[in-house]
Amino acid sequence: MSEADEFVRVARRAGEAAAGLAPLPRAAKDAALHRIADALVAAAPEIVEANAADVARARENGTSEYMIDRLSLSEGRIAAIADAVRKVAALPDPVGESVRGSVLPNGLELRQVRVPLGVVGMIYEGRPNVTVDAAALCLKSGNAALLRGSSSAHDSNTALVRVMQRALAETEVPADAVQLVPGTSRESVKHLMRARGLVDVLIPRGGASLINSVVEESMVPVIETGVGNCAVYVDAAADVDMAVEILLNAKTQRPSVCNAAETFLVHADVADAFVPRALGALRKAGVTVHGDDRIRSYAGGDGVVEATEDDWHAEYLSLDIAARVVDSLDDAVAHIREYGSGHTEAIVTTSQPAAKRFVALVDSAAVMVNASTRFTDGEEFGFGAEIGISTQKLHARGPMGLPELTSTKYVVTGEGHLRG
Amino acid sequence: MSEADEFVRVARRAGEAAAGLAPLPRAAKDAALHRIADALVAAAPEIVEANAADVARARENGTSEYMIDRLSLSEGRIAAIADAVRKVAALPDPVGESVRGSVLPNGLELRQVRVPLGVVGMIYEGRPNVTVDAAALCLKSGNAALLRGSSSAHDSNTALVRVMQRALAETEVPADAVQLVPGTSRESVKHLMRARGLVDVLIPRGGASLINSVVEESMVPVIETGVGNCAVYVDAAADVDMAVEILLNAKTQRPSVCNAAETFLVHADVADAFVPRALGALRKAGVTVHGDDRIRSYAGGDGVVEATEDDWHAEYLSLDIAARVVDSLDDAVAHIREYGSGHTEAIVTTSQPAAKRFVALVDSAAVMVNASTRFTDGEEFGFGAEIGISTQKLHARGPMGLPELTSTKYVVTGEGHLRG
Fold it and tell me: Where are the transmembrane segments (chains A, B) (predicted)?
């Protein structure tokens, strides 16, 4: 059988599994999740062995230690993954929730209720824990998961899915509700992107180039996640101490993630008070500042790199930050509109009108007032778990929890109602 | 300037207008809508004259009288279009609505609020009233509208947009918030479909081939609307009188629309009682039934056409209906899953368990219990207006009112909160 035919077979089985899974009550889904968690712990040696093959191949290929660390599984890490599955089981079931309801003037009863999306396709990079996280979130929300992880983690993902399917076989949830996309070639990703009618939504998680290629090529509806060129704007009315702390936290607390700050913009009126302190604190934290001329004038030619157009666009994911002095809040907003990725922006200000205007004009998934950009996160927002952070405006925007993995259905009940 | 460059210029102006429109209060938007309504009425002669050119061209091209009727504008029809705009002004403003809010354990205040989508692209067929309806719904929800109607209505659409822009020029809403896509070629539609980053969502309204081509080619997120292969299932426990009435209403009350029934499925246990009466009533109403062998056995070889595979898939939009006897509710669900378009299905039954099972298993935007499929409609659902009926699962499903033309933004307010 060709890889394309094999893909269609797998996707159809996922669709059938989704149909069987959709009407299951919460208890059945939670029991299946607990079974998966137990099975992962019990099968940890088998999973670690498969993972060792991936890690060995990665080392042969000269993969960086950072990437190898993301790829590596130990019995301890598998226990943590299993705990995360149990946590998902403990979350409320979004399916069946009434989101709208009324009795129409003609007596028809109208209810809009949450239902699963159906088959959720995930494309992601070399972190095998995503295989289990995504499967757990999909199952809990009544969806089948069709997973396409990095080929670098293929052995690990195969083992994880085998263990999960074995566990599901002993539950009411169909085992086909969790499957890997067959094959490891680039072509196999394309099968997923062209599977309109077989896959209900595609969620790419990874770098900008992965996400762009999926958005451009997919015929299946896509939820874009992850690219974060986040800015901290220090307003004329900022508390300078607070501004330095927020900037430092936003940039350095975990520089490799999408909600880390990549740019700061400072109002000219507060630049004298703020910039020297900020540059000192950032230098101490090992951060390279890429500044415009006005920022550089505070550095005495020392320690601040000249910013280019590329810097304003950059999602560094490293200890680098772009910096610019602006003449007004509206200039800060204009910079963000031009260069931002619509993920998270923060304003530091004691001025209520300034905060209100920034919130109104900045068109990003999350806008922080006097808080670090690092808070844009499903866990931090209290969602219990997240499948990604959407930077598009359709369907879901910002951290996506279980409700964002559902659609809705209108249920209309009459007594022989006819339209006149 | 090339058409592609001209498109980018227009789309950028729409984006700037959207940014100006987004923070406007309801009063400013409603005032603009009333100004548009008045201007349409005042300019009715100018619009009718432009429309006459479209109509004359359509007649030369041998367009059907039905299509010419959809295309034609009179002063009376323009007055009705203006009234619809005033009705949109009277609807609640979805922008700014809090859809979620809480204080997090660390004291951060979290609010999720509705915001406009930005620039909404519409692709639609030869009904010039859609130009105004879509513009009004977009403006009310704070969005700029980038409109691409049928080239057959180009003169009408140009006049309507000119009148609307003239009206907007005297209001706080930027006139560029309503624009036509430049050009009438097929290529000009492609500019819209490739305008990722310039257009936030594309809503095609029209036949299946238009919608399919947009879904397959668009890099801009799409909301599919409109295709309706709707089924009425007559359960073993149906009230036969009610079933005949609902079927007749669903098929014949307005056969040309997407929520009209295109198939009926009848449980074998009730077929003897139901089918002869249904066939008689449908024949009397001028409906051609395309039945399977079991349906045809009731017709005595008279008046029922043999159904082919194509009939099960058909969205007739005419006085035709496909019909099949099924042995169980689950067989009816299986038929719908195989052939339905996910728009609206109805069950007629007095059995509560049967109704519950049908509602749970049928995966359509709307499921009717003892009511006609014709009720799936924004007006009927009490939304005041609709921009289309979504048959996809992402973002919006079923009739789309003003809230479905919005996204959301998280606003997080702290007091110097840092992530630990």
Answer: none
Q: Give the model's pLDDT for residue A74.
A: 97
Task: Give the per-residue pLDDT at A3.
Answer: 87
Using the Cβ of A68 and the Cβ atoms of chain B, whether some distance falls under 8 Å is answered with no
Cβ count within 10 A of residue B325 = 24
Which single residue is written with the structure tokens 């969790």? A178
CB contact B395 to A (< 8 Å): yes
**What is the interface pTM, i.e. ipTM, of the complex?**
0.94
Query: What span, in angstroms and rounded, lies between the C-alpha atoms of B243 and B262?
Result: 15
Task: Please tell me whether residues A242 and A364 are part of one structural domain.
Answer: yes
Which residue range forms the structural domain that includes residue A56?
Answer: 3-224+396-413
Q: Contacts of residue A368 in chain B, CB cutoff 8 Å?
A: 412-414
Q: Are residues A24 and A55 in the same domain?
A: yes
The model's pLDDT over A188-239, given as tens digits with 9 standing for 90+, comes to 899 999 999 899 999 998 777 888 888 888 989 999 887 899 999 999 999 9
> Measured between alpha carbons, how far is residue A143 from residues A174, A200, A308, B178 in Å?
11, 10, 45, 39
Contact A370 B417 (CB under 8 A): yes
Mean pLDDT computed over every residue of chain A: 95
Could you tell me the two tokens for B224?
């599919």
Residue A335 to residue A311: CA distance in whole angstroms:
12
Provide the CATH number for the domain around residue B321. Answer: 3.40.309.10
* Distances from the Cα of B394 to the Cα of A122, A202, A406, angstroms: 15, 11, 8
Contact A332, A267 (CB under 8 A): yes
Quote the tokens at residue B320. Answer: 């035709």
- Return the pLDDT at B312: 98
Residue ranges of chain B with per-residue pLDDT less than 70: 301-302
Residue A94 lies in a domain: yes
Report how far residue A411's alpha carbon sits from residue B357's, in angstroms, rounded to the nearest whole number.
12
Residue B292 backbone dihedrals phi, psi, to 5 degrees: -80, 180
**Residue A116 and residue A160 share a domain:** yes
What does pTM read for this prediction? 0.93
Tell me the shortest Cα–Cα distance from B60 to chain A, in angstroms. 37
